[in-house]
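In the current project phase, our protein records have gained a structure token line. A sample record follows, to show the layout:
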Amino acid sequence: SHKLFPNRPIILAGHDRGARVCHRLAVSNAHPPQDDSAKLHSYKLLGTVLLDIVPTLVQWQSFAHPMASVAYFHWPFLASPVAADMVEAYGGAKWTHLALDRICGDNAEGRKAMQSDDAWEVYESLHSKREAIEGSCADYASGCFDEPSLQEADQREDRKIQSPALVMWSKARLGKMHGGDLGSIWREWVRDASLLTAEGVGNDVGHYLPEEASTVIGTAIKEFVEKVSK
């Protein structure tokens, strides 16, 4: 879109893996690579919304804690070369159902919303295909073998997000595993603390914030967009 409308400002927003892509794009926008891809990051970025993540490097570092290693076992597993065959043998749909049920929160209304319109069945159907399984594993492999070293270099060379950022997370899931205040983590990844708006979401909602807490998330994003668009 920045090619069609080069003067139109952009707000990035994503959840989970999409949020990790947004984090990378926000850093690259502030610090364009010194190669032919630099022009791809020349758009005007007004802000970034990151839902239920900590930086990928921090996530891997959390594996030093035994409970985190168990909670996030799928990270190293899906990045391994045998993962696609094992998931397919177990059943892609069965694996997906297990993951959705395990990561979703305990709030009854949130779970109901997450399952509405046969959403789980759609996810399970898509991930019963070999191509989807391989794609998911490739994504986790990149998150293991590529992104951590890039983020180590970013932090070492002081390449941080330089535009406003809204970070929201599940208090019952991600927040619990990372000491409660994810704002203190993300402050190390933005140029100035004043750029960061950090908010944990309670009421026992889980990882799937856009579905489980749609009103809370929608309101926060609307307010953020209005603020950075002034």
